Amino acid sequence: MLLTDDQKMLQETAANFLADEGSIAKQYRHWRDTHCEDGFGHALWKQFGELGLTGIAIPESHGGLGLGATEAALVLEEIGRNLTPSPFLTTGIVAAKAIEGTAHADRWYPGILSGEAVLALAVDEGPRHAPDQTALDAKRQGNGFILNGHKQFAVHAASADIIVTAARTSGSPGDSNGITLFAVPRDAAAIDNVNLADSSKAGRITFDNVELDADAVIGEVDGGWAPLSRALNVGRAGAAAELVGVAAGAAAMTFDYLRTRKQFGKLIGEFQALQHRAAHLYGEIEIARAAVLKAAQMLGSGDDRADLWVSVAKAKAADVASLAAREGIQMHGGIGMTDEHDIGLYLKREAVLGELFGDVYYHRNRVAGLSCY
Amino acid sequence: MTDLGAFRAETRAWLEANCPAEMRQPMRSEADMCWGGRDWTFQSDAQRHWLEVMAERGWTVPDWPKDYGGGGLTPEQAIVLKEEIARIGARQPLYSFGISMLGPALLKFGTEEQKCHYLPQIAGGEIRWCQGYSEPGAGSDLAGLQTKAEDKGDHWLVNGQKVWTSYADKADWIFCLTRTSTESKQGGISFLLFDMKTPGVSTRPILLISGNSPFCETFFDDVKVPKDQVVGEVNKGWDVAKYLLGHEREMISGMGLGGGGSLGAAMKPADPMLRAAIAAFDVDALAFQAMSERFTSLWKAGEAHPASPSMMKYAGTELNKRRNELMMAAGGSEALEWVAKQPRDWLRSKGNSIEGGTSEVQLNIVAKHILRLPGA
Questions:
Q1: B248 is an active site residue
Q2: CA-closest candidate to residue A72, choices A295, A302, A278
Q3: What CATH number does residue B342 fall under?
Q4: From the candidates B248, B334, B337, B355, which is the catalytic residue?
Q5: Does the beta-carbon distance from A373 to B264 stay under 8 Å?
Q6: Number of other CB atoms surrounding residue B111 within 10 Å
Q7: Are B333 and B257 in a shared domain?
Q8: Would the CB atoms of A371 and B262 count as touching at under 8 Å?
């Protein structure tokens, strides 16, 4: 599991770009404090395009780089480290995977490559992730479909050109068969643009007799589970990678604080009570990163254990990012509770990413299920 | 087919042809482990055969150079071999502190003569080694050791006592840390090798809470050691000792992997709370398995931090203790039956985070050498 020279180069490019242009001051705080409706900057998304980063998951036949989950993970770790808000994960990795190999790819890949298009994914219908429970009703009507129901936690839905939406065309909630993916134009449904704890935006979407043409279908009618699962898997691995970045960023900030803050006439990093917790955290982050790289490798080689490893990575990374953020605030003391200090932002981001595409409990349960117990 | 693919096919065929069926059965107890050595009694012809054919091929130490009895495999080939061995459930042909600890130290610090003499004996399982490190007054503070080696011109005269010497009563030779100077704590230690049959060496097993005695007290009373049996320079044995500890910690961290399978799949916990605890454990165990693979690649490529075995040892041993706790819970009252392997394994596992440097010592090392925290 060593990185190739090309991968190390990509990592360096992403690290430099995001530490500079994607910094907390320039992006996270700027868009939060100016009450931006998108929650991210379109100019930065275009810069992702100029650097070629938007094409990581897009096949070479469509002008992308045709790279894999490992490369996506390297970029996402840097995004996490800098808390950079962007459509990279939801548009560039997840939606790009959902529409792969369909006519929608021809339509939207050019916009993703240039960093102009934004695509969202709408799956969850309740407060907890449960994709097979999809109930949003899609009935055939004339040459197309009519949709009725509800979606929530659809990241960037209000900013998206289209919302890749999982709906039920047959069967009942709990069946993985009978789900169909639709490309829903943003204006077709009523979107409540919800501000989340980390100032990122996610849509609550109401479908009230939303009429779609037949060509809004992505892939096969009733056959949406396979592409949805593929999209969710890269999304989960990607969120896990971003969580490792969040953990590493929070830890680096905290370790620096231990090396500079004085109390009782000593640097607080001299206290063994803190040293041991810091060392434990360091190890946990290394382990989470290894799990993410393993999951990416499994996705890349199409291994049938990929589902298992993706869930291991997501559960572990969320767990560790939570630890890093909680320890970060505690070790910073009072200053860690202030809005002025950045450490608290890591806690907020970790919570949202931890929930995205299934939380720790969802993925532990999936690991148990896939291991037949 | 790639070269690695061809190697895999070849390896698979060879293992199929050469690994006896008996050696593909899971080990029933510690008694099934083959340690080799001068006094070793093979449990069966299959155990003897398996060691002989693997040693013949250099596969008891797949990544050591062929000149010293190794297999000369690349790191990638070594991983393939490991996977193929795991695929058929073959037992490890030889358990050896020579392989996991002394060998790497000799490869780095030994003279050409020492390498040619000792390494093939280790690879073939001919000599069983034990480790003379801890002393009654030097546990976590290992460099405070007092076992004395006096320069008597044509030999070293060793006097003192070691403790926690694993299998000292069964070992043929010892690699032993001795004090050759009192001028500096770490700078007065020398790394000696000698035969446990040398007059003046005696051992006494220590009975553990597990009811077993894997460790001994080892006594040295005017033991004469030939002058050329020093590894590295005199008074610079601490460098050798630390390097070896890195390998020991790497080896011990391997217990974090357990048998490699899912604990939940093995235990089938019916209780939902226990299932949840085991699922949380399985996530951590699989993530650690990924870390172990990544660490091995990084270590072999020279990209790992020199102190990273401390992180691995800490994580692996804490995980193994947790595994044993969960197995006890899943086993219920049956897991308490003393004749079974379970309660002894559980009790023995408590030593994992003590031997080879306590968890607290490992965290100190990470804090100091990796995180560079002040005053650590």
A1: yes
A2: A295
A3: 1.20.140.10
A4: B248
A5: yes
A6: 13
A7: yes
A8: yes
Q: For residues A332-350, b (16+ Cβ closer than 10 Å) or e, as one string?
A: beeebeeeebbbbbbbbbb
Residues B92 and B28 reside in one and the same domain: yes
Query: What is the domain-level CATH number for residue B142?
Result: 2.40.110.10
* B299 shares its domain with B258: yes
pTM of the model: 0.93
| CA–CA min distance B170, chain A (Å) | 36
| B121 located within any domain | no
Contact B375 A365 (CB under 8 A): no
Of B282, B308, B360, the CB nearest to A276: B360
Q: How many CB atoms lie within 10 A of CB A36?
A: 16
DSSP B1: -
Residue of A269, A312, A373 lying closest to B269 (CB–CB): A373
| B70 found inside a domain | yes
Q: Closest by alpha carbon to A328, among A250, A243, A276, A249?
A: A250
- Checking if the pLDDT of B146 tops 90, the result is yes
Closest CB from A278, A279, A365 relative to B279: A365
Cα(A254)–Cα(A336) distance, integer angstroms: 10
Total of domains in chain B: 3
Task: For residues A350 and A322, give the distance between their C-alpha atoms in angstroms, rounded to a whole number.
Answer: 6
Say what the pLDDT of residue A138 is.
98
What angle (nearest 5°) sits at the alpha carbon of residue A110, between those of residues A108 and A115? 95
Q: What is the pLDDT of residues B298-328, one digit of tens each?
A: 988 889 999 999 999 999 999 999 999 999 9
User: Is B10 part of a structural domain of the chain?
Assistant: yes
pLDDT at residue B1 tops 70: no
Cβ within 8 Å, pair A367-B366? no
Residues in A touching B287 (Cβ below 8 Å): 287-288, 290-291, 312-313, 316
Q: What length does chain B have?
A: 376
